[in-house]
Amino acid sequence: MKKFLVLSFSFSLFALSFTLNCYADFNDYLDYLGKERGHFGVKSENTLGAGEKFFIGGDINDLGTSIKALAEKKPFLSEKQTIGIEAGAAFLDDKRYKQETPVIGAYVYTDMDEYTRFSSEIKYSQPEIYHVSDAADERIKKHVGSNSVSALLFRCENSPVDNDDYPTSGRKTDMAFEVSSQALGSDFNFLRLTAGNAFYYTPVELNNPLSRLTFAFIQQAGFMNRFAGDDEIPFFERFYAGGTTTVRGYMPRYLGPRDKDDEPIGGNCMAAWTLEARYPVWKDIKAALFYDQGNAWEKTADLNLNDTKSGVGAGLRWVTRFGTARLDYGYGLNGNTRQRGGRVHAGLGMRF
Q: Bacterial surface antigen (D15) domain: which residues (predicted)?
C-alpha cells in the first residue's frame, strides 16, 4: 500500500518541479484544466515540445479527497491519438472504517472530431480498508486489508459546449464501460456502465438581465453486475447517492441500500438528476439555485424512479483558473429518513 502512495506523490512532485524549471514566468505555464474528469488543478503544455502535457490536481468534497497527476504525449500512432500515464490516490473517512486507494494507469485516446474523444485505459487500484469498527457489517469486515482491482475501461466523451471549464450553452456527454476480471489480476469480477449527460442553456436573445441566467440540466446513471461466480461486488466499488455530487441536502453516500444497522452499504444501480439555475453576481462569483433527485438500489431490477429522494437549495460558485470552488446549502425534502434539517456541501472541482 505504502509503495503505491509513495509512487503517486513522487509522480506529482516530479511533474510539478519539472514544470517549474521549464518556465520562467508563472503565468506562462499554469492554466486551469477543467476537463480532467472532475478534477481541478494546473497543467503545463508543450514542456519538451509539441504535444507534451503534465497535469497535477485533485478533488475535495464531502465524499472524500483525491489527488491525481498525469503525463501525456501526442501524437502516438497518429496525429489524432494521445498516450498517457496517470497516478493518484483517494481517501475516505467513514465512521465504520477508513479507506485509502492508490491508483495507477495507462491510457490512449483518439480525437474523433473537435468535440468527441474515445479512450481506452488499463488501471490498477489497491483499496485498503482499515480501522474497521466492531459494529461494522460483515460485508465490510471481509475486505479488511489490501484489495486488488485491475480493470479495462472504455470511454466516449462528447462536449460541444461554448466553454469547457464553465459552460453556458451546449451539451456534455460522458459514457464509460469497465471490466474488472481475475484474468487481469483483480480480486473481483464485475462489469460497470456509467453515463452522464448535461445540457446548458442561456437565453442570450433576451435584452434584459435574464440573458445572463444559465440553466443546467444534469443526468447521471450507473449499473453494475458480477460474473464468473463472484458472490458479490465489494462495497467500495458499488454506487452511492447523496452528497455534493448527486443529491444535495443529504449526508454523503446516505441514500441507497442499508446494512443491518441502517448504515449505507451501496448498490449495483444508481440514478440522479439535477436542475440548476446559475447567475453571475460579481466578477467570477456565480450564484445558483438547484433541485436534485435520485437514489441507489441493490440490483438493477430494483430501479424505480418513484423510489427517489429529492433536495433543494442554493449556493455559490467561484470560477478560477485553477478550478471551480463550490459552496452549497441543500435541504432534503423527504421526511422518512433519519436526517433532520439541511446540509452544507463544499467542494473543489465540477463534474459537469
A: 46-352
Q: What is the rounded distance in angstroms from the CA atom of residue 27 to the CA atom of residue 241? A: 39
pLDDT, tens only, 193-251: 999 999 999 987 767 777 789 999 999 999 999 987 767 899 999 999 998 889 998 98
Residue 172 is predicted with a pLDDT of 93
**Contact assessment for residue 169 and residue 292, using Cβ atoms and an 8 Å cutoff:** no
Cβ pair 307, 295 in contact under 8 A: yes
Per the model's pLDDT, the better-predicted residue between 337 and 20 turns out to be 337
Let me know if 190 is exposed, middle or buried by CB neighbors in 10 A (0-12, 13-18, 19+).
buried
Report how far residue 167's alpha carbon sits from residue 352's, in angstroms, rounded to the nearest whole number: 9
What are the chain's domains? 2-348 (2.40.160.50)
Cell numbers describing residue 255: 441514500
Rounded CA-CA distance 67/50 in Å is 26
Alpha helices in the chain (DSSP H): 2-22, 26-29, 138-141
Read off φ and ψ for residue 117, nearest 5 degrees: -135, 135
pLDDT of amino acid 191: 96
List, as own/partner pairs, every contact residues 167-170 make where C-beta atoms lie below 8 angstroms and the sequence separation is at least 24, other chains included: 167/198, 167/200, 167/214, 167/216, 168/200, 168/202, 168/214, 169/200, 169/201, 169/202, 169/204, 169/214, 170/199, 170/200
Rounded to 5, what percent of the chain is helix, strand, coil? 10, 50, 35
In residues, how long is the chain?
A: 352
Query: Nine-digit cell at 188?
Result: 473481483
pTM value is: 0.84
